[in-house]
Amino acid sequence: MIRQFIKMEIQVTADSEDYNGKDLASDNIFNLTGKDISILSSLAKGKSYKMVAEDYGITINTVREHIRNIYHKMNVHSTTAAVLLAVKHGLIHLSTLIYLIA
Length: 102
Description:
By secondary structure, this protein is mainly α. The protein has 7 helices and no strands. It has a single domain (2-101), classed as Response regulator (Rossmann fold), CATH 3.40.50. It is globular, with a radius of gyration of 14 Å.
């Protein structure tokens, strides 16, 4: 099952690198800010809201607000869905997630 997940993630990342000759990461089709992407990446690594807040020197409520904004911009309702879309569109790279599987 883990191997299937790894294969799926690798395929998704490969597909996102070139779509009609464009690098989707540079397009940032969801209009996420750098901080939004960074917070989403931290959550993808398994960090809690509290850990993210400590890393960025912000309150947990501010983290929650960023997450609400991310969900709204990406039209999703969970962190898992946001992370998968971010990977698919090249905003978060497989190397961010790989150590979670090992």
